[in-house]
Amino acid sequence: MALKLPHKDVAIIGLGWTGSILANELTDAGLDVVAIERGPWRDTATDFPISYAQDELRYRIRHEMFLRNSQMSVTFRNNTSQTALPVRTWGAFMLGNGVGGAGMHWNAEFWRFLPSDFILKSHLTQRYGASFLPTDMTIQDWGITWDDIEPHYDAFEYLCGTSGAAGNLGGKIQDGGNPFEGSRSRPYPTPAMKQGFGHALFAEGAKKLGYKPFPQPSGNLSQSYTNPLGVTLGQCTYCGFCEWFGCANYSKASPQTTILPVLLRKSNFEGRTDCEVTRINVDNTGKRATGVTYVDTSGAEFEQPADLVILCAFSLFNVQLLLLSGIGVAYDPQTGEGHIGRNFTHQTVSGGLGFFDKDKYNFNPFVAAGAIGMCIDEFNGDNFDHTSVGFVGGGYIGQVQTNGRPIECTAVPPGTPAWGSKWKQALKDNYLSTINVGAACHASMYSYRDNYLSLDPTYKDRFGRPLIRLTIDFHDNELKMSKFLTDKYTEILKAMGAKQTVTHPRKAPYDVTEYQTSHLNGGAIMGDNPGNSALNRYLQSWDVPNLFVMGASAFPQNAGYNPTGTVGALAYWSAAAIRSQYLKNPGPLVHA
Amino acid sequence: MRAAIVKGGIPWKPGAGDPPEVVRPGGWKYFTPQEAKTVEAFVDRLIPADELSPGGKDCGCAVFIDRQLAGPYGRFEGYYMAGPFQKGTKEQGPQSPETPAQTYRKALAAFDNACRTKYPGKTFVELADDQKDEAIKGLEDGSLKLDGSDGQEFFKLILKNTQNGFLADPIYGGNKEGASWKMIGFPGTHYDYRDWIDKHNQKVMLPVVGINFHPNWTQ
User: Fold this and answer.
1) Which residues of A are catalytic?
2) Which residue of A58, A69, A424 is in closest CB contact with B50?
3) pTM, whole model, 2 decimals?
4) Is residue B11 part of a domain?
5) How far apart are the first and last CA of chain A?
6) What is the pLDDT of residues A137-181, one digit of tens each?
7) Contact in structure between A165 and A177 (CB atoms under 8 Å)
8) How many domains does chain B have?
């Protein structure tokens, strides 16, 4: 029997990026907020201090920061004819855990999507005609436009101190930035990062081929910065232990380095750590959330009543919790009906190796950062004419090598023995003179009728709840796109002077064992009417209006950029609607 | 970790850090003496001593593997280990209830037996170097079968573990004095390369350091 706790105005599930943003915004509005986080409290001084943060074995190979699969995993299959099996240890993606969530161990590659990405279906249909799209592709518009979201991208960038070079300031194209980006209201808060030799060489190679390279927007800061909340971040030291790691130097934007020091001092905020929400409770009409039920580490069960519930877990677990709580209708791929679990997507990444003459090139790959790099955007989204290429979508291409950590970054040319003295010699001969980027082509994955999330019929978590089941494979559209982009990347590597290139376009079937990215999206998507989405344009549940669902689960399909910039912007967009509209008149913000 | 309430400021208490334990050679925490000899001989062929570095045994790779198998990794702690276990596609990943510690125990015994059959009466450690290499190649290409174990999978496991130990921070026991880092030109965990980010195509002239290793520190 759950112990019923005193009422709160707001219960937030998960204290990562979106939970921290919503908690800060809603406490500012005077509400009494509790955030319930299933992982531990984590902070720089205790969990990744400068004296031992740079530990590849512990954090990268043994997954110290990540959600333990024994606490919660997922099951996976390529299609409905297979039996889904559990992911025993993370491979294709690495999921966060604890306060800060994935915002602690991310690279901090800080992108905005393109204006056309938000109106994708309309845009592509208008430009190419409806028959240009594959028949089983289920892309749709988001229900918001560039003008809606731009101020909130700006807010998130200024919270984090994002380092970059503007490419389009108020409609005027700027030299040195991304000329394809949507019009921005302000420059980046801090200048672009410095670049290493390999990154700079990519820019030279790209220019030779007629492209317009620009520095990747970065949440690893080029200089110290004090954000609007008064929290100061330090300058990045290019230490090369960034993604998979916590930053010991307070120079990577994370909830810990931007919001939590302020949030935790507020008397109307409380966080509960190592407490796992097991369901969202709804009343007998099914139309109103009454709060959440959670279990602490002693196994004791608590009921936390609240007027407003904000679901801020990772995308997959948002969908799992909606399904477990019976909120909305589960998606059925046979009939296409139901919305919870629909339009599940990942990212289409590809890349490879460029081997250079060791007597002429020394890249010092260990002098780097999680979001360093030079990129081109000529082949992202609909920045180029797709009429003759046979696919839609695209991605950025870049030299975004983040590190020279020895276990991960000791690639050797094909044909080298896997062990022995020849292997050692090849390591020595190539370590400093190889460009090694797994996601050099970082591209979209559009949604399809048969890629979806559902509850697994067999495998359970430690409480006996069904795991979320991933049914996903790559489709021809994305495979053609990956070949196209990878060929372009290979041309740039050659223009840089590589003596040998080994690049790999993404291939089917989708493989859950090898790292791709941790950008999993969809399953509780936003849209302009309850017939095509789980959430309205403000991320409010169509079914339960006092429930809002943050995160990349709201993406109707994925664009060719890293998602966190958009996840943060959507959180600010939703928080603004809650503050300015919902609190005055609680109820549906969009009438169906 | 225990459930906690955080409020009123950033939680802090002294001694809350969790630094890694320093691995020191001496004794075996998981391997039997015979297993340890076999693994020492094995890692010394995977990473032979030559002008580039000391061999795998002297670098401590067998000690590294022993300590890893005696710890959380050896038990697959943190893995999803609930059944049912059933074989799936390659893309679904390994689906075995067997832990690395169990795999080593079974496979090392079977490997010695396979060597005794192929090289009458001799265990792996008693073979000449070229025979050792031949036996390892047999595991690698699948021609040397192990009774009750998958030899190719075991080869992949011990190769991965050995190379991880050789390339990991010296604190874990398999990369003595940063031998592999010196070999490839990785200066280690300096934490601050701001002085080097602009120095394109120049060799970084810094001593190799690790979490508890610095040439100026004395024991």
Assistant:
1) 519
2) A424
3) 0.97
4) no
5) 38
6) 999 999 999 999 999 999 999 999 999 999 999 999 999 999 999
7) yes
8) 1
